Amino acid sequence: MAWTVLIVSGLLEAVWATALGASGGLRKVRPTALFAVSIVLSMVGLAYAMRTLPTGTAYAVWVGIGAVLTVVLAVLRKVERLTLTRAALLTVLIGCVVGLKVVS
Question: What stretch or stretches form a coiled coil here (predicted)?
Fold first, then answer.
């Protein structure tokens, strides 16, 4: 259960990071509201997962999921370009997140 909550919290990290970027410095209402709700839910989920998972592992997995998905969302929205090098580095990051899950 903790791993599932942690993964969902990582997904929500990508949501709040993307919403924050779209909020215009917290001046646009909808992205700001989405940012506020998703960051609270993401942190609550991370805190819940840390009750049973090691803090370092939980945080690394949460950040890794959020970072990769934030880049993916930016690429899909055509805000950033996905180069071969970036794709390779994101793949390595995904491998590290999976590796932390496997060894925990």
Answer: none
